[in-house]
Amino acid sequence: MDAGYKDSDGYVYVMARSDDVINVAGHRLSTGAIEEAIMTSEDIAEVAVVGIPDTLKGQIPLGLCVLKHGVSKSAEEVLNHVRDVVRKEIGPVAAFKLAVIVPKLPKTRAGKIARNTVALMAAGQPFKVSIIDYG
What's its top-level EC category (predicted)? Predict the structure, then answer.
């Protein structure tokens, strides 16, 4: 499902996926907004944020970050910067502490990040892998 709005002239604006909302301690947060904040980092090429189960807060965000080619900073330095950016842009309510560097993200056939698969993997749940035979 997509979320958006219709302006006074009748134009429809698709802003985000409504199923990309996580509940962190009773606060509904857009994973897309967190991803946008992370993408302001000059070191990040791609990112996926998913909610993972947390016994205290219900869910907490996990950021999977792909570095741009040639980044010479340490992973710790990059991830600390990413955490700071999210705290500044989204606020402490995001409780954003978990971020990792990954070599690449799983994609659908259409080239979109397979967030549902990422979320299942991160939560330790079973997931299905589709194998495409091009031969």
Answer: ligase
Indicate which CATH number applies to the domain containing 104.
3.30.300.30
Percent of the chain's residues with pLDDT above 90: 46
Q: Give residue 42's domain range.
A: 20-122
Q: Are 22 and 33 in contact (CB under 8 A)?
A: no
* Total count of domains within the chain: 1
What pTM did the predictor assign? Answer: 0.77
Q: What percent of the chain has pLDDT over 70?
A: 87
Q: Where are the beta strands (DSSP E) in the chain?
A: 2-6, 12-17, 21-24, 27-30, 44-54, 58-67, 98-101
